[in-house]
Amino acid sequence: MKIIGTGSSSPSLTVSNDMLATFLDTSDEWIQTRTGIKTRQVISTERLEDLAAQACSIAIHEAGIKAEDLDYIICSNTLNEYVTPALSCILQGMLGADCPCIDLNGACAGFIYALDMADALFERGNMEHILVVCAEEPTRMVDWTKRDTCVLFGDGAGAVVLGKGEGFKSFKLSTFSNTEALYQIRKLQDTPFIKREETEGNDALVMKGQDVFKLAVNCSLNDIKDVLKLAGVKADEIDHYLLHQANMRILDTIMRYLGQSEKNFPHNIERYGNTSSASIPMLLDELNKNNKLKTGQKLVFSAFGAGFTTGACLLEWTM
Ligand code: ACO
């Protein structure tokens, strides 16, 4: 398969570090030094499905197809207002598509997992176009009185339309079950058979930042080395490494281990924060729209998130 269209969308409200410091014991200096984040876009008046539909429409338009031409929609999403139906089903109606739809929850690595699923669907032989959309609102998962998590996130959506082709060269996915380092427990309805105390507890995102940091660096490095090896490509031959935008220090550490420079490691975390699985397709769309991607260039995507899920893939830019 190959990418034939990209799109992205983010909420209109820009929240600066100084704005956060008006209600949290934090500072612009702390946040920028520890994370690289200066501002993030935060959902206020929008709904996530509107952002997702906009990102999809842009990608579909660029691909030169109509929503009716889609054979499958895969939506990567961790949390949205609907438990059911799936966000992909809502998007199908908004876009006017009529294909099968499914959501997957691979946390921040969801884009790579969705691409891998799409690749397998293309192998089946009866698909022409698959839409992968990542739509996330992590700012509605965090406790806004907890400075260690809420400063890290932003909201947004990124999408790609995939067509038949030879763009993708290698994939590597891994999962290591870990419910300690990064998790969120959803409160369910009470029943006559479950006492209230048993369902009580913190229902916001919990993260052991330093554990996640180490896991992220190790897993991403291993995944990148594996996709390079599988494709028979050297680290220096990659034009753009697009990593999950979780923390600028994570990106810097991986960049140094691979012996690469900042010109190969594009980033927009300073303007968007961590938008979970949407971060790579949003960055990809930004590079694409700014004409930074040239036909034949080699790209690596690498992401990591709760689960612990990690994944990478290597592709040649064909647009
Ligand atoms: N402002 C000011 N001080 C803060 C803040 C804040 N926003 N947050 C934490 N601190 C304080 C802590 O309370 C602590 O104070 P103490 O020493 O008095 O106890 C001090 O800063 C240091 O805290 P650490 O947790 O050690 O800080 P660290 O340098 O590890 O940075 C961070 C924290 C930014 C969360 C870092 O660990 C990190 O980025 N980890 C990876 C997180 C990540 O990538 N998550 C996403 C991956 S998966 C996903 O995308 C869902």
Brief synopsis:
The protein is α/β, with parallel strands linked by helices. The chain contains eleven helices and 13 strands.
Annotated CATH homologous superfamily of the largest domain: Thiolase/Chalcone synthase
Number of helices: 11
CATH topology of the largest domain: Peroxisomal Thiolase, Chain A, domain 1
Task: Indicate the proportion of strand residues.
Answer: 15-25%
Low-confidence stretches: none
Chemical compounds bound to the protein: acetyl coenzyme *A
Determine the fraction of residues in helical runs and give it as a percent range. Answer: 25-40%
The appropriate CATH architecture of the largest domain is 3-Layer(aba) Sandwich
Mean pLDDT: 96
Please give a structural write-up.
The chain is built from 11 helices and 13 strands. α4 links the parallel β4 and β5 (101-104). Helices cover 34% and strands 24% of the residues. The model has no long low-confidence stretch (mean pLDDT 96). The two termini are 12 Å apart. By secondary structure, the protein is α/β, with parallel strands linked by helices. The protein has 2 domains: 2-166, 3-Layer(aba) Sandwich (Peroxisomal Thiolase, Chain A, domain 1); 170-316, Thiolase/Chalcone synthase (Peroxisomal Thiolase, Chain A, domain 1, 3-Layer(aba) Sandwich), CATH 3.40.47. The chain has helices at 17-20, 28-35, 48-63, 87-95, 110-124, 147-150, 196-199, 209-231, 248-257, 269-272, 279-289; strands spanning 2-9, 13-16, 39-42, 72-76, 101-104, 129-136, 156-163, 168-178, 182-183, 206-207, 240-243, 298-305, 307-316. The strands form 4 sheets. It has a 5-stranded mixed beta sheet with strand order 1-7-6-4-5, with helices on both faces. α3 crosses α4 and α8 packs across α9. It binds acetyl coenzyme *A. Acetyl coenzyme *A (ACO) binds at residues 26, 30-31, 34-35, 107-108, 147-148, 151, 182, 207, 209-210, 212-213, 216, 246-247, 250, 274, 276, 305-306.
